[in-house]
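Table S5 (text form). Sequence records supplied for joint modeling of the two-component complex.
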Amino acid sequence: MIELSELRDAAQKAFPADELIPDRDESWKLIAEMGWLMMPLPEESGGLGLGRDAVTAINLELGRVLSSAPLVPALLTVQAIGASESLVDRDSWIERTCSGEYVALNLLPGDIALADAGTLSGTLPAVPDADMASHVLVFAKGLSALVPLDAPSISVSERKLWDESRRLFDITLDNCAVDESLMLARDDASHDIANRLHGELQLALAADCLGGANAALDMTVEYLRTRKQFSRPLAMFQALKHRCADLKTHIAATEALLWSRAVDADASVTDLGALKALAADVYRFVTEEAIQLHGGIGLTDEHQCHLFMKRAMLNLSLGGSGDELKERAGRQALETYSA
Amino acid sequence: MTEGKELEGLRQEVRGWLDANAPRGWRESYDNHEAFAQSQREWFAKLVEGGYAIPHWPAEWPGGGRSLAEQKVIYEELARADTPRLLLSFVSTYHAASTFFECGSEEQKARYLPKILEGETWCQGFSEPNAGSDLAALKTKAERKGDVYVVNGQKVWSTMAQYADKCLLLVRTSSDGPKQAGITYLLMDMKAKGVTVRPINQIQGDQEFCEIFLDDVEIPVEERVGEEGQGWAVAQATLASERGLTLMELSYRMQGALWRIAELIRKNGLEEDAGVLRDFGHLVTRIDCTCAIADQFLQNRIDGAERVGDASLVKNTYSRVLREYSLLGTRLGGIDEQYQAPITFGDLNTGNWMADFMNSYAWTIAGGSEEVQRNIIAERMLEMQREPKDWVAS
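The corresponding structure-token record, covering 733 residues in total, follows.
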């Protein structure tokens, strides 16, 4: 059994804190070499059989360096493939995806319609790094399947994000035929996979948020400790200390819930969504304050402070809005806490 | 998992016991101080008898030796059954007990711990008018005269001192050297000659805190905990219990009482109001965070992995979330909450959200204010430089 602290150390060695937004393609190679793509699959299907806390630890570390590689969606599609009972050549798919072939996934709900003829049409928004993917995992009513991105009925377009650490694509399917051999699941089984992936996505995004929030706070505190005005380090001013202490408190409390939910098999998708909503709020707040506390230099493109803020803002949207996730949590709590 | 089954068994056991024994109508009965104190004493005695009063004490005590997971189950069920918090025995079962377990002599343990279970109550005489956040600046003076210390001075913010039998008292035995080094820890009988207690009228119309005036009070030397001049270290044991175990109980109690908010939402017909649901969902998640960080803190302490400042993170999380919780209740309760409730002791679940809101300040101010905790977090965890110590009035 690999200890979490070993994984964390390995991740920090591979992705040092002072190299933000490491090159995507180099990172991807390294991620595959480290075996991280195999983490969530059980050992009998060729995986490492590591728990959700291991995946969380890696996602948190990669959030810290604003990783530009699509590990989050890749780990979800690897799990979907692992859970499939109908995919032809599933073992070889597992081998391919675990060693670096990337199957992409949309991180916001799509509007894919299934025509009577069995073809798929519609748009999958917010697909990370579709340019390096061989296939995309598509969920439609009653089915899920892998669709090759080189099919003529598919178009892929990128819109440039404020968040320079990520690339998102819209994938449009126009009467795209589904290859029966690439079918992952149908009906309930497909719905179960979608549901599971949705929960895992929320957990992964929460980890990304808290990794980034920790790094942004570290960067800010370091700046305040070094920058001098009025003949003393800015960190000496209590007004600034208290703001940093509050940021630390918010991060620590939310991170405690992250670790507890990561090992809680009973945590519902709604619980994980509520965690993500809060973690994204914390990330937003920390990075908003980080720029203010850096002062003018925080507004320059040259300083890296803004990179965290932009990623935090994107994270607020990915996986569903906080409003929606919190409302769901409130509805669930209304049931749970009946007198 | 077998542990899961055992815990479920405990839950059912506690639930069954509470069905038969939980006091009903206690809020209505708290309409005068005598009735409050009487009801608190009876409930404590019943919990001792049932074996649920001191789950955090060591195993040799009846009802003690519970694992953290078991303690949590007990606190959750106590809150779920809407039982009153043990306000009167709070300091005795946590602060006094931790102090005895960690620093008390064998004789002191034997003399005082069984009495706590019989209902003897303690208060804490730490803060003074000019020693609040700067506790070590305390001035209450104790002079050794033969076999006794003669104590003169004033204490303040002593919770429930008007009901207390005994007091955990910090005094100054020396003015030489660093201010912490001249502090000594004494156990005082509240009925001793020269002790005067004056309850303080608080903003919520009640008197939870008191002033204690000490006028030539004689305290026998054997009532000292630790050596003379070691009081600061002993006080840390007292305060550590506050920042650990008590906050776990309170966090799980806050979570266990969430049905009160849910009930308000239903009563107001707001089950489909997206804004209210969002605020409720957010609060529930913040409370889940509070429980998680309290858990993590205690686990780290057991594993010997506690870091300086961890306790401050827990305290500032709990106290802020308690404020958020009481504010949401006050908002949802509307005008009803603006009518005074007869007795408002306690920091949550008094039955009046406005009172709970006002009580919540006890946690952002007492036990080391939120601002002091922020300094600890900033200076000792984040390593932000301290301000120069000396300040000269111009």
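Note: Chain A touches chain B at residues 217, 221, 224-225, 232-233, 235-236, 238, 240-242, 244-246, 248-249, 252-254, 256-257, 259-260, 274-275, 277-278, 323, 325-334, 336-339 (CB under 8 Å).
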